[in-house]
Amino acid sequence: MVSSANPIKASAHCDGPCGVYDPASSRIAAEAVQSMTNKMLALECPDSSNTPAMAGYLNTMSRYASIKEEQAHLTKSELLVLWTDYFKPEHLESNPNLHDLFWRATKLCSACKVEVSPSHAQDLMDIIEEIHDVFWATKGREVPWIRAS
User: Fold this and answer.
1) What is the CA radius of gyration of the chain?
2) In this structure, how many other beta carbons lie within 10 angstroms of the beta carbon of residue 32?
3) Cβ within 8 Å of residue 110, ≥6 positions away
4) Contact yes or no for 29/75 (Cβ under 8 A)
5) Shortest CA distance to 124 belongs to which of 81, 87, 76, 85?
6) How many alpha carbons fall within 13 Å on the CB side of residue 54?
7) How many C-beta atoms lie closer than 10 Å to residue 83's C-beta?
8) How far apart are CA 83 and CA 81, in angstroms?
9) Which domains are assigned to the chain?
10) Residue pair 115/69 in contact by the 8 Å Cβ criterion
11) Contact 29, 71 (CB under 8 A)
């Protein structure tokens, strides 16, 4: 029997004690943000008098924008799970800029939603790489940063 003198310590990214955390999910979502941003900027607008071509352009652009926003929101959600559920006070001792790092990352997620900015999309990838490095350092592991794209 567990008593208050000997409590069981559990931690998890959800309300269950699975204990599974990995910044890879935020990286993958951010890569989609970057990809959609680049696709939006590369898409050429047809002559507005060409109704079928314009309809196709608007359809494709709106799909890219929707995916970009959805993935930016997912990136933010994944980052917030790491920030609020995985990282503990002892991690702040060895990484005093941790709160600022996550605050900047989540602000970049918002910027990527409302803008079509390749520089912000790249900044988001760069800061997630920093988070990746900090995360794996807390586990005493060197895990290479590998992009899917």
Assistant:
1) 20
2) 20
3) 72, 76
4) yes
5) 76
6) 5
7) 17
8) 6
9) 24-138 (1.20.120.400)
10) no
11) yes
Cα 68 from Cα 118, distance rounded (Å): 12
Tokens standing for 96? Answer: 């005093």
Distance CA(74)–CA(25), nearest Å, equals 9
> Tens place of pLDDT for every residue, the chain, 149 residues?
555 677 665 554 455 567 789 999 999 999 999 999 999 999 999 999 999 999 999 999 999 999 999 999 999 999 999 999 999 999 999 999 999 999 999 999 999 999 999 999 999 999 999 999 999 999 999 999 999 98
Residue 146 token pair: 């590998």
* Nearest to 145, CA basis, from 120, 100, 135, 99: 135
Retrieve residue 13's tokens: 């990214």
d(CA 37, CA 33): 6
